[in-house]
Amino acid sequence: MSAARSLTALRAIAATAALPLLLTACGYGSEAEKKDEKPAGATASGGGQKLSASEVRIGYFPNLTHATALVGLQEGLIEKELGGTKVKPQSFNAGPSEIEALNGGSLDIGFIGPSPSINGYVKSKGSNLRIISGSASGGVKLVVNPDKIKTLDDLKGKKIATPQKGNTQDVAFLNWISEKGWSVDPESGKGDVSVVRTDNKVTPDAFKQGSIDGAWVPEPTASKLVSDGGSVLLDETALWPDKKFVITNIIVSQKFLKEHPDVVEAVLKGTVKTHEWINANPDKAKASANAKLKAESGKELEAKVLDPAWQSILVTDDPLASTLKTESDWAVKAKLLEKPDLAGIYDLTLLNKVLKAAGKPEVSDAGLGAK
Question: Which residues lie closer than 8 Å to 287 by C-beta, 6 or more apart?
Fold first, then answer.
């Protein structure tokens, strides 16, 4: 595990990627919203000698779970490692569009959630991407109306929102419901608890209007609900060993990895150094991420939302591979995913090379590495 644990301050998610996984026609994540990517600014280089590629196109989401990208690009920490190779950032709003860009050859490296990573890998039969590093853990909470729900048992019979059918939070909530001994139809969301699939952008309004009684959602949506009078009933980190689970990975096109390993290694040097800088400068890093969000959307997060959201995310080099496998197993259990073959989804060779050179412990692919 990387030095991320010392960070008590990086934490948050904004709209966690709409995380689709391969399934049948009504499949896992099949309702994922597809939106075109948005240019995130002019290309830039750190100066110096160009590596084997003239530029590297890096995709990410404008939300706090992608803090590695936000801070690394805002502070020039990734750019600095690339010498004369230019960085071309691209902002996305949904997992499918980022995977499509990677598949179509218009994106080289991306920050993205575990489910679209699995989706992209399985749909291409293992030929289009590899997960090359972790980026963030945590940042998911069950927030409820405290007037209606005071204990976890009170959820029975209530309406609880998740971001999307088959996305990472939806699957985690369905698994939690199952372990409670309750029953919910994964397709309709009807059962002992009504699971209401609601876009994170409209969940706060639905909560204020009373059309939902709570939500199992990522940050900063969770903190927005708290600012509107909600109460955190459960932090998902409490359900995981060591209180860690993957929420954001770094992926790469296999073609780009094969042709430009020096560029990929340089990007990973930048992300490892970004995590170090975030841990050493949590307040500056939080402000940097918010500044990047403002540059992206024209609006920054208010302190009452930013501060608690930031604290609930852990930046990490470790991809927490075993938790990705668990999330996949939960989707299979819920009958939202056909059992996937994930062998080879990880290639942590370059990351472990960078970590070893920096005197840091190497990380594991949980037996799912490229042969």
Answer: none
